[in-house]
Amino acid sequence: MNLDSMPCYFCQRNIKEIDFREAKTLEIFTSAAGKIKVRKKTGLCSYHQRRLTQAIKRARFLALLPYLKR
Ligand SMILES: [Zn+2]
How far is the CA of 14 from the centre of ligand 1 (A)? Predict the structure, then answer.
């Protein structure tokens, strides 16, 4: 999936609060190794990048997302 030229994924879909339970959505914004992608790669606005980081950290804490993938 190429996120480079896309405008902010969440603004586009009118999503204000990112749901940390939506692991599938969050996973799009993590690298193959399970790391959170940088804004340059996600194409998110600063607001949503911040929200995304929060959501992913929360999801990891609740074991919905892995910290690291093998
Ligand atoms: Zn946004």
Answer: 8
Residue 53, pLDDT > 90, answer: yes
Compute the distance between CA of residue 70 and CA of residue 62 in angstroms, rounded to an integer: 19
Ligand 1 centroid–CA 45 distance in Å is 4
Please tell me the predicted confidence (pLDDT) of residue 6: 60
Report helix, strand or coil for 63.
coil
Dist CA 55 CA 59 (whole Å): 6
pLDDT digits over 17-42, tens only? 999 999 999 999 999 999 999 999 99
Residue 35: partners with Cβ closer than 8 Å, 6 or more residues away: 68
Distance 39 CA to ligand 1 centre (A): 11
Q: What is the CATH code of the structural domain delimited by 9-61?
A: 4.10.640.10
